[in-house]
Amino acid sequence: xxxxxxxxxxxxxxxxxxxxxxxxxxxxxxxxxxxxxxxxxxxxxxxxxxxxxxxxxxxxxxxxxxxxxxxxxxxxxxxxxxxxxxxxxxxxxxxxxxxxxxxxxxxxxxxxxxxxxxxxxxxxxxxxxxxxxxxxxxxxxxxxxxxxxxxxxxxxxxxxxxxxxxxxxxxxxxxxxxxxxxxxxxxxxxxxxxxxxxxxxxxxxxxxxxxxxxxxxxxxxxxxxxxxxxxxxxxxxxxxxxxxxxxxxxxxxxxxxxxxxxxxxxxxxxxxxxxxxxxxxxxxxxxxxxxxxxxxxxx
Amino acid sequence: xxxxxxxxxxxxxxxxxxxxxxxxxxxxxxxxxxxxxxxxxxxxxxxxxxxxxxxxxxxxxxxxxxxxxxxxxxxxxxxxxxxxxxxxxxxxxxxxxxxxxxxxxxxxxxxxxxxxxxxxxxxxxxxxxxxxxxxxxxxxxxxxxxxxxxxxxxxxxxxxxxxxxxxxxxxxxxxxxxxxxxxxxxxxxxxxxxxxxxxxxxxxxxxxxxxxxxxxxxxxxxxxxxxxxxxxxxxxxxxxxxxxxxxxxxxxxxxxxxxxxxxxxxxxxxxxxxxxxxxxxxxxxxxxxxxxxxxxxxxxxxxxxxxxxxxxxxxxxxxxxxxxxxxxxxxxxxxxxxx
Lengths: 299, 339
Prior knowledge:
The structure holds two protein chains of two kinds. By secondary structure, chain A is an alpha/beta fold. In chain A, 20% of the residues lie in helices and 28% in strands. Chain A is globular and about 50 Å long. Chain B is an alpha+beta fold. Chain B has helices at 11-18, 95-108, 115-122, 139-142, 169-177, 187-203, 213-219, 225-232, 238-242, 288-307, 317-321, 328-335, and strands at 2-7, 23-31, 34-39, 65-72, 75-77, 88-93, 124-129, 153-158, 161-166, 183-184, 249-254, 260-267. In chain B, strand 8 and strand 9 form a beta hairpin. The mean pLDDT of chain B is 93. The chains are: A alpha/beta, B alpha+beta. Chains A and B meet through strand 4 of A and strand 4, helix 2, strand 11, strand 12 and helix 10 of B.
C-alpha cells in the first residue's frame, strides 16, 4: 500500500489553500462521532467532516495539526493522534487545560458539531524514514502526535526497519493508549519501553525513573536510525542532548514543538520564534534547525 | 512609470478628483504637531507633509478590532464585512510607509492569503508624498528612504509645483480622468527633483549602522543590555501599535447577545505578558526583558534572515511614542558598543 501525503512546503513559497476552505480562518464543520477518556484529564475525540467528500479526502502528514473551534467559546491547535493511512475519520487527543478544552469536556458529547481548520503546519518528513529504523521518544502528552506517526509506520510496516518507542509519563494511570501499545509490542510490530516517574504503588511492569534512562536500555545503529522526540520543555532539555550523546546527528533528530497559536497560518505572530512561525515552518523541526533558533526549545 | 508635473495651486482640485476613486484618507492635524490618519471630506484639512501620523496606514487594511466570523439567529457568516472598508485612497504616504506596505503584503499575501486583508488591499490606492526628515527619521539607514514600486502615484513637492510619478494602471486612470491637472515634466523639474533629493539625503541626522547587524545580534544575545532594557520597558505595547510593520493579532470569541457568537480579531503586541502564554500556564516569554529582546530580534535579526531586509522602515514612530524614552537607534548603537 502506498499513501500519498500533502507535500512538505517551505514557508513563504507557493500560495496554498487549506483542505477545509478557501478562507483559511473559516472552519469546516465536523461531527464528534465518539468520545473516550484516556485519563481523567485527557480525552480522545473521533471526528468526521460533515461534508462527505471532505471527510474522505482529508489527508494530512503525521505531525501536522488542526485548529478546533466552537464559535463563541474559542479556538485552539491540537495535534492528530490518528494516521492518514486510515481515512474517513480523524482523532484529536485533548487535555483539559483552559476555556475551550473545559467546554469540550463539560458540554460536548457524541453527535455534536465543532469547527475544524486544517491540516496545518509541516509534519514529519516520513519519506526520509523509509528503509530506516525509527526511534520514537515521547514524554507525557507528547505521545498524542507520536501515536499518529506510530500508526502511519505500522500500517505500512514493511516500508520501515525497526520501530521503537520509548515513552515516559509521571504515573501508570497517565500512560496513554496503554492497551494498544502493549498489543503492538506483543505482535512484534514495535519495540516498546515504558517508564513512569513514580509507580504510586500500582502494578507496573515498566521502568520507574525518568524517560531519558530508557535510552540506555536499547541499542541502535545511529547511522541507520531517525529519532523523533515529542514532549514538554523539560523533556526536550534532557532528551535531545542525550540522543546526541548516544551518537545521533542533529539532523537525524526531529521534534515537534508547542507554542501559543491563534491563526495557525503564519499571520498572527504568537508562535513566532525569531521569524520562524512554529505553525507554518513547524511544528516539526530537526534538532539542528531548532537549536539555531534561540528560545525555540526552552526559555 | 510616467513622470508629470502639477502646479501647487491645483492640489485641492487633485484631492477632490481622488474622491472619485474611494474614501479619501490623509493625515490631519488633530492638535498642534499631532497628526492622525483620517477620512476627510474637506480637502484643505490634508497635511501630507506631516512626517508621521500617530497610527500608520495599517488601520486602513485591518481595523484594530473586527468580527471575522459570526453566527446570528442561526445564520453563520464568515464574510468579515466588518473589516470591509471599501475603496480607499491613501494620500500622504511617505517612502517608509510604502516600504511598510510591502512588508505587510509579504506577510498577508504569501502562503495562505488573508482574505480580510486582501479585500481592502486590492482596493487601496496609494498616493505618496515626498517628505523632509526630522531628528527621529532613520529610513536612510534602513534603505527605505526612496521607493520605486508598490504605489499608484507619488507627489514630490518642488518650488510652486509637484513632480508627479505615475506607477500603476490605476494611477494612470486617475491621470487620464484629470488630464487638465497635469503637464509633462520638464528638464528643469527633473533637475530640481535631483537637487531636492540631494538636499534630503543630507538632512538626515539620525543614523543606524546595520552592517552585519543580524550576526552582531546573534553574538550579543546573552548581553546584559537586554535585561537593562527590560527594566526600562513598561511593555505597554505603544511601539507595536504605532509601528507600520507590526501586524500581530489576537483572536477571541465573544457572545454579544443571546444566540449570537463572534470570532473577533484585535491588534496584539508581542510585548504583552499573555502573548506567548499557552494552555496550562507555561509562558514562553515571561519576563519583560525576554519580550522586548524578542521584538528587537524579530525586527533586525530574524526578519533579515528570512527576507533579506529588516522589518523596520525607520519611520521613528516608536521613538516618538515610547513613554520611557527608549530609542531604537540608541539601543542598537549600544549593542554595537558605540554608545
